[in-house]
Design goal:
CATH superfamily of the largest domain: Aldolase class I
Bound molecules: S-adenosyl-L-homocysteine
Structural class: alpha/beta
CATH topology of the largest domain: TIM Barrel
Radius of gyration: 22 Å
CATH architecture of the largest domain: Alpha-Beta Barrel
Helix content: 25-40%
Distance between the termini: 28 Å
Largest sheet: 10 strands, mixed
Number of domains: 2
Number of strands: 12
Number of helices: 12
Order of helices and strands: HHHEEEEEEHEHEHEHHEHEHEHH
Strand order of the largest sheet: 1-2-3-4-7-8-9-10-11-12
């Protein structure tokens, strides 16, 4: 928190190139070309002190007057099976969030967090257990991608094989509950002078904030929308996803349809199969009926089935493979495209939220352990 004696230092990593240019010219009184040098260096994960293209005096001023809140790797787990890497990050205020790097045939994807905690209250989700602590800044979301990419190039080799080419906003948090910062992040990560990740390779997942979906459809960002549905009746959905009490299934599907009609982009529906809860043949039939009724026939419909990942704090268990296949077959019978999501990183507990909870339980943070946040944060990194 800033006080009168400790003014807020501008966050360079959240700035668009044109904002950085203005800052460099007007606040720092430096020539404009410095802005491009700073932007490029930041996108590679360089701290001001490491920006070798800048004169020492400018590096020093940037260090003192600005902030570059890259997350620090607190823990890193790598799957022996499929190359999945899970990162637990520490942010400057000591908060922790997670990202997961996954290798697919069509490219490498990073799953990023958008909030520290979550306030949506889904009954099966580990990320929401302690509520929402705070929103992440655009820089803290972008920083996950920059630092994961830096780590992957360092550990696996700097070649196209190890490039992050896609993003899913499916980590901790509800992206549409941190709307402005998420949109800023999307535009930054797509910047051609930055990581240049194509919008078509980005998916945003939401538990169903209808106002956010409608707003997103007007942003002119051709990303894929992923809607976490998980039930076909309002009764069951409201029981496991409190957000449904505000926006029921019908209005959620109408918003999804509007998104498709406005953007021409695919919408996919996530459906976590919970044994004995939402995985029966009747439920599958009802799901098809409701999707068809609300979405019509012109819109392609894709359902992603995911056996629920059981968390300690809830009694839900995963539907077995046979029933999962039956559920998928029932959808296909109705002409609805369904895939069963491949589980990656099974040996490293790669789904989000659980590491953060564990470290929160274990960690006794002494008030001074982070200092003012920043210097301590980076000392830890360089000593690793
Ligand atoms: N808040 C957003 C994005 C983060 S959650 C959303 O709700 O979509 C990403 C996905 O993981 C969502 O589909 C969510 O419902 C799902 N999910 C959460 N906990 C899960 C669990 N224990 N097992 C399987 N999927 C889970």
């Amino acid at each position: 928190m800033a006080t009168a004696s400790q003014p807020v230092r501008p966050d360079l990593l959240s700035m668009f190139p044109e904002e950085l240019l203005r800052y460099v010219r007007e606040e720092l009184q430096e020539p404009g070309y410095r802005a491009k040098q700073i932007f490029t260096a930041l996108q590679r994960g360089c701290l001001p002190s490491e920006m070798s293209t800048l004169p020492l005096s400018l590096r020093d001023r940037l260090e003192k007057q600005t902030t570059t809140p890259f997350p620090l790797i607190e823990q890193r787990y790598q799957s022996r099976f499929d190359g999945t890497v899970k990162y637990l990050w520490t942010l400057q205020d000591g908060e922790n969030v997670e990202s997961v790097f996954m290798r697919y045939r069509h490219g490498n994807t990073l799953c990023v967090s958008t909030q520290a905690g979550c306030r949506m209250g889904c009954a099966f989700c580990a990320s929401t257990l302690g509520g929402r602590v705070r929103d992440l800044e655009a820089s803290e979301i972008l920083g996950q991608v920059i630092m994961a990419q830096k780590d992957l190039y360092q550990t696996e080799g700097e070649n196209p094989n190890n490039r992050i080419s896609g993003i899913v906003l499916m980590g901790i948090g509800e992206p549409l509950d941190n709307y402005e910062n998420v949109i800023r992040f999307l535009r930054l990560v797509n910047n051609p002078d930055g990581l240049n990740i194509g919008y078509r390779h980005i998916s945003l997942s939401t538990c169903g904030l209808v106002d956010g979906i409608l707003r997103l459809s007007d942003e002119d960002l051709p990303i894929t929308l992923s809607v976490s549905l998980h039930a076909s009746s309002d009764e069951l959905r409201s029981e496991i996803m409190p957000v449904n009490r505000k926006w029921g299934i019908s209005s959620l599907l109408q918003a999804s349809r509007a998104y498709f009609e406005k953007t021409g982009r695919r919408v996919s529906f996530e459906y976590a199969l919970i044994a004995g809860k939402n995985d029966t043949k009747e439920e599958a039939d009802r799901l098809c009926a409701v999707l068809r009724r609300e979405l019509g026939t012109a819109m392609p419909i894709h359902v992603n089935l995911i056996p629920v990942n059981p968390i300690r704090e809830s009694s839900f268990s995963a539907t077995d493979l046979v029933q999962t296949e039956r559920f998928a077959a029932a959808l296909k019978e109705h002409g609805i495209n369904a895939t069963v999501r491949r589980t990656l990183g099974a040996d490293i507990n790669a789904s989000c939220g659980q590491l953060r909870n564990r470290i929160h339980q274990e960690k006794v943070v002494s008030p001074n352990s982070m200092g003012d946040g920043r210097p301590e944060h980076y000392r830890k990194e360089s000593s690793e």
